[in-house]
User: Fold these one by one.
Assistant:
Number 1:
Amino acid sequence: MPSLKLNTPIEIDHFYHIYNRGNNHELLFYKDYNYAYFLKKYEKYLSEHVSTFAYCLMPNHFHLLIKTKTELVSNQLKKLFQSYALSINKQENRTGSLFTKPFRRILIEDNEYLKYLVFYIHYNPEKHKFFKDFRDYRHSSYQNLIRKKETDLNREELFDWFGGREEFLNFHNYYHEEKRLEKYIIE
């Protein structure tokens, strides 16, 4: 695994793994429609500033794989978090921070690592036992990527990293099976 640069300043034209969780490990998404609302806010604040390759929203945390387009990404992420938190605080009659501060980010400089990160992001609901099979989880980019429907995700460039759509699917299936076998490995 390459050395990772954690919580570095966000610069233009770089890949980042952005992730965060609920403050004190609390929920971020209380109701099913909160997931879509977060993505709508994400589009509003970030669509002009990043290319999005993968995401996964889970009840108490999220992961994003982005490539920056402008110098305003950090500021726009803060706006997203503030706006979403205000809505959730009102909905849930709560006060205070919703997200852990500061949000986490890892600069990704290794092309091979990007593929593993995409799998990791998609596999997360199964890894954390939120869902039995990550491929069926509705709140990640996996289904949006494999469908033929139009998407704001940078699908074509992402598929190119894997050598095409079929290799993307094979990679996810292969590493998924490898994860299932880990419990049988004795070292």
Number 2:
Amino acid sequence: MRIERVGMAAAAAVAMLLAAGCQVSTNKNGDSKDVKIQTPFGGLHVTTNQAAVLEQIGLAAYPGAAPATKENDDGAADVNLSFGDYRLRVKAASYRTNDAPDKVEAFYRDQLKRYGDVIECRNFAPVGTPVKTFEGLTCANENEGHISFDDQAGKNGFELKTGSRQHQRVVTIAPEGSGTKFGLVVLDLPKGVNGNVEGDDGGK
């Protein structure tokens, strides 16, 4: 999932909220942009502060990596959307490093182990074992009712995933020139989305 796609989803939600009548507050601090929208039905909060988003993701920054920013892409976003009992939150940050993918993989495998079983996914299929986490998260694609960020990893990339279907951490890793581009994502889905998380306890 590219950061731009998070922004597009947030923009659609903003349009709906504006139509409902709401209070909007914005704040810009350096390169960081924050938007908060509140209505009688729910609200949306978006922040793009790289350091704050990384802290919320709960994974350390890879040593020496730089934010992968470009036009219309802040490199990080924390999108929190709520309508009554419906709550969706996506925290994502993209980085680049001159190190090879295997070094990035080793670093984040160790980071993810703190949250449970780690699975590796390539082209929506598991590589090695385990093939799913203890909480039931697999490599299956969106057509099978799951969420995947495999498109960001690209043809030669892969994902490391941990957690449950409802609450998951994903690291996408892909070669870029002589270095690596990688993304860090935490996804919190509402129960019952796509028939995917009913009865899920939310993971760790």
